[in-house]
Amino acid sequence: MNATVATVEVSRDRLEVSLQDGRRASAPLSWFPKLAATTPEARRMWEPCAAGLGIHWPLIDEDLSVAGLLRSDRDAA
């Protein structure tokens, strides 16, 4: 089963993604330079893309895949 995004929260130093299946992925914001460099408002304006398999921030034209984030989260553990 593919993991799909439910919610996204971006703080000053972390990206936190909750998935529909209950899992959570977290990574340092420094791993995502475009997100780190933008405003809090632009960070809050996200939308699911690729049928929920990705996350898109339209104000900065940034995309992340859920699968890539899960790999990064596991590799960092």
Overall mean pLDDT stands at 91
The name of the CATH architecture is 2-Layer Sandwich
Q: Write the element-wise H/E pattern from the N-terminal end onward.
A: EEEHHEEEH
Shape: globular
The gyration radius over C-alpha positions equals 11 Å
- The residue ranges in which pLDDT falls below 50 over 5 or more consecutive positions are none
Distinct helical segment count: 3
CATH class: Alpha Beta
Placed side by side, the strands forming the largest sheet appear as 1-2-3
Largest sheet: 3 strands, antiparallel
- Name of the CATH homologous superfamily: Uncharacterised protein PF10387, DUF2442
What is the SS-derived class?
alpha+beta
Q: Any idea of the CATH topology?
A: NE0471 N-terminal domain-like
What does this 3D model show about the protein?
- With 77 residues, the chain is α+β, with helices and mostly antiparallel strands.
- It has a single domain, classed as Uncharacterised protein PF10387, DUF2442 (NE0471 N-terminal domain-like), CATH 3.30.2020.40.
- The protein has helices at 33-37, 40-44, 66-76, and strands at 5-10, 14-19, 24-28, 47-49, 54-57, 62-65.
- The strands form two sheets. The chain has a three-stranded antiparallel β-sheet. A three-stranded antiparallel β-sheet has the order 4-5-6.
- The longest helix has 11 residues, at 66-76.
- The protein is globular, with a radius of gyration of 11 Å.
- 16% of the residues are buried.
- The mean pLDDT is 91.
What is the structure about, briefly put?
The protein is α+β, with helices and mostly antiparallel strands and 77 residues long.
